[in-house]
Every structure is written in structure tokens, then in C-alpha cells.
Amino acid sequence: MKAIYLDCFSGISGNMMIGALLDAGLPIEHLQTELAKLDISGYKLINKDIVKKGIRARYFNVEFRQWFQPSRNFGDIQKIIKKSSLATSIKEQAEAIFARLAEAEAKVHGTSVDKVHFHEVGAIDSIIDVVGTVIGLEYLGIKHVFASALHVGSGYVKCDHGLMPVPAPATAELLQGIPFYSDKIKGELVTPTGAALVASLVQEFGTLPVYMKTERVAYGAGSMDLDIPNVLRVYVGTVQMLAQGQKAKLVETNIDDLNPQLYGYVMERLFAVGAYDVYLTPVNMKKNRPGTKLTVITAADKLNEIIRIILTETSTLGVRVFECDSFHVAREIVKVDTPWGEVRVKIGKMDEQIINVAPEYEDCRMIAEKHNIPLKAIHAYVLGRCKMFTDELL
């Protein structure tokens, strides 16, 4: 799978992102042709190599032929994108990025999304930065985006409403849930547009993945001259994604005084609210008492509900919570016809290759009970009908 890693040691902005994509192989002619599909005019694209503290980087920017830039709202930008002849995938992604910007601005200014008037981010250069980034990612075939923690800078930045602390309010809103830090470097290193791109496009944050094979290192230059190289470093390569990963929570508690008959009910309640898995482990507790460790794996947004059920439905007085990575292969459900009715079959895929085929137990059980046929015979029959899938396993 084609992927990029954004090394944001000097922050990120829209023009730095496009500069890096141009340096990574996006032809400027392709970018110009695609951007011409937008109903905007009066600009010129700057594309040149420059040196920042000894590092050669591609500098991209937008030069205006007219000094006045109209203030646009989210609806105006939507119309510009929707009316274009760009590919649907590009239009949808660009609109989603601007929607995220609009939501952040609306929250900061205490208004609704449809009433937000973009100033800096509604100008032509920001429209080009957002749409151009999506164009570049699609041209390069990028399917996964990683990023480091973001260096946001420090001090104050001058914007339409006056001096604002770094990160600017809208940027701070967009960076919720994203790792960032401030160092001694003065200035705004992460712009609202840059923050929106990261918040919308990046799937994973951290160090450069050990399973990423780098094929090229590209640099996009920022406009300011700093004490550090003002560049966005982008690693371009491939990753072998074994499974779809996401952050999960592992909840545990040890219990030695609960009626064993209640555990089944507790497990049903936990699964009903969306727990990934629930299991019981026999343990020896203090004073050598036999006990049971209840373990639940759940999505982070289900944590409070999971804890509430455990505390109210069991005799425990507390739980332990750990963060963990949860990986799942891509799954697809297909229906297989049998002489006794349909049976659902789960197909597990990794990198588009089938690695597991499993008839749905409940469907097989219902047929076995209804027609008085051994369950193992139903299971074997369904697997036989799945030959087109099982052959791919061999």
C-alpha cells in the first residue's frame, strides 16, 4: 500500500504540503490542469527550489494578480468545489476538509457553520492548498497517511481579528486529539489550513513506522526563515498493512464474591453496548481465594458505558483501564444458498487477499435444529459451497 509519513518538526501549512508533494513527484502541469477546473482566477502558481538552512526544498505558493480577496463562507467554497469538473473523490475529500475548518471556526466564534465567514482560509490560496493537496495525494496513489507530533511554534500571530496566541484558536480546536508541542521557535508553524489537512487526512500519529519501506524523501518549504530548517519532510513509500488498526481500551477487574450465575448476564450486557470481547480468567486472589478476572476490550468511546455496567452489575469496587492497539482484518459478509436456506459467511481479508472463511455459527445452528441435521454436516456443506473463496487460501 502506498503511504506517506509527514515529519512536522517545523510545523505544516498548505503550501508546505503541496511543495512536498511536488518534490515527491506530482507534476506541476497536472496540478495546474486540475486546479483550472475550479471557478477561481486571478492567481499565479509559484514553484521553485530553494534552500532552507542547508536543505534543498520545493517552495510552492500562490501569487495574486489582484490585491482584494473576498470573504467567503462555507457555502461559497462548497459551490466552487461542487461546480468544478474535478473527480468526485477529490471534491468529496476537499469539502470534508473545509467542513472541518468551518466547524472549528464556528465553535471558536460562537456561531453556526453556515454563518462562518472565512477570511484567511477563504482566500484563493487556501482553496488551492486544500484542493491541490487532495489532487496530489490522488495522483501519487497515497492510501495511508502517517504523521509525527506537530511543532506549533510559540508567541503570537497577526490575523483578521488581531493578535492571537500560537496556536491560533481555530488551529487549537482542530488539533484536539492530535499530539503537538511548542518549542523556543517564535512564529505560527501550524496554520489553520495545515491543521485541517492533518486532522482530516492522517490516520496514525507517532514515529516513522518500522514497517514502512521508504522510497523517496521530499521537502516542502515554508515562507518564513527560522533558526531551524523551515521545511516539511515527507517520506514516501509502501507499507504492508496486516490489519486495520485502532486504539482500544482494555478494562479489567478481579472478583471473588460474585454469584457465578451472574457472569453470563454481565457478559450479555457488555456485548450489547458494543464491547469487542469479554472473557473470564480463573485467578488466585489474596488469602488464596479462588476468583475470576473479568476482562473487556472496547472502543474508547464506549469506555464509560462499559465501566458503568461492570460497577453496577458486579460486586467489584473498581476497575483497571489500559490503552491498547486493536487490529482487525477487513471483513465482508456473503450469503450462501443451501437446500435448507441462506447461511451468512464471514470472509476475512488482508491486503485484498482472503485469509479466512467462516460460516456464521447461528445460521448453521438454526438449520441443524430445524431439519435435525448434525451441525458439523451443515458447517462442512457450507464450506464446500465456498470453494471459490477457500481455493484462494491455498
Automatic annotation (TrEMBL):
It is an enzyme of class 4 (lyase). Keywords: Lyase, Nickel. Involved in the biosynthesis of a nickel-pincer cofactor ((SCS)Ni(II) pincer complex). Binds Ni(2+), and functions in nickel delivery to pyridinium-3,5-bisthiocarboxylic acid mononucleotide (P2TMN), to form the mature cofactor. Is thus probably required for the activation of nickel-pincer cofactor-dependent enzymes. It holds the Pfam family Ni_insertion. One of its GO terms (molecular function) is nickel cation binding. The lineage of its organism: Bacteria, Bacillati, Bacillota, Negativicutes, Selenomonadales. It catalyses: Ni(II)-pyridinium-3,5-bisthiocarboxylate mononucleotide = pyridinium-3,5-bisthiocarboxylate mononucleotide + Ni(2+). PANTHER family: NICKEL INSERTION PROTEIN-RELATED, PYRIDINIUM-3,5-BISTHIOCARBOXYLIC ACID MONONUCLEOTIDE NICKEL INSERTION PROTEIN. It comes from the Bacteria. Belongs to the LarC family. The keyword Methyltransferase does not apply. Its EC number is 4.99.1.12. This is Pyridinium-3,5-bisthiocarboxylic acid mononucleotide nickel insertion protein. GO terms for biological process: protein maturation. HAMAP family: LarC (MF_01074). The keyword Transmembrane helix does not apply.
